[in-house]
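note to self — DONT lose this again. spent like an hour looking for the file last time. sequence + predicted structure for the chain T wanted, 339 res
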Amino acid sequence: MSDQKRHGSLALDIQGLVVEFHTLDGVVHAVNGLDLSIEQGTTLGLVGETGAGKTTTALSVLRLLAQPAGRIRAGSIRLDGEDLLAKSEQEMGKIRGKQVSMIFQDPMTSLNPVMTVERQIAEVIAHHTRLPERQAVEQARQMLETVGIPGERGSEYPHQFSGGMKQRVVIAMALACSPQLLIADEPTTALDVTIQAQVLEMMKQLRQTYQMSMLMITHDLGIVAETCDRVAVIYAGRIVEYGTLEDIFEHTLHPYTRGLFDSLPNLEDRTARLKPIPGLMPDPANLPEGCAFCTRCAYATDQCAQHRPERFYRTQEHYAECHRCRQICFEKGGSAVWE
């Protein structure tokens, strides 16, 4: 069990997850001892740059890693207490779409262009419920109504829908069998800002209606602020900071998290310059011996380069893996806000 404080039963509990990809150029260490938990009925935001391991973590939950290259080398993944790594492929086929569903980044590649949208949703329903085709199609049309699309449009094909409408269809498909856990992988990346806000608001309402738990994967801290209860910041396949929404936004511990905030435009001061995080994420095939962020961190010391940091807890729920934040936090009387 993780040493995070638990308040309720867990929808998802990942402990010590290690994922590797074996390529011709060597072993890529994509996820490196990751711990993650989501309480029933809450939304956790998984935040980080491209290549940090967000999508690999999600695909590991569904056991959909590219084969034979992708391998789960260690750790456990439990969904509502059940060990997913002990399930057969046949058993996972019953779990995907029924107990846990995923919304992928690009709805263009998630939908079959030669099938009507109602048939695609009905396929999911029929697979898990064994309803007759007519009833499955009728239920599919009801799901379209739920996400704001007139049911009669179910007989149309994906190319007849706008980007925002396609994403609504994908969400309807994901929710068709009322999953316990919904994984949303950058669900609004391909949408313009206005449609993005509408889709996010709809997802919040649907989560409450269906009483689901949600893993929101994103690089956008604005989306996190709008939709999440807790936040996990991931870097080079490890959670480097975890806490409530208030913890992360008001009491930032890790310099990487601080860097993500500093990279955002300042709407109150339009003359303020952006402060991008210098350098690039380390090569996952050749990770540093110590802290993976040390080559980009303005506060790094020899200790950071040589030793992986242990977790420092500001509260029972809020922690970061950083040598320096422990020192800074004590200097500031319990509040580690990087300046």
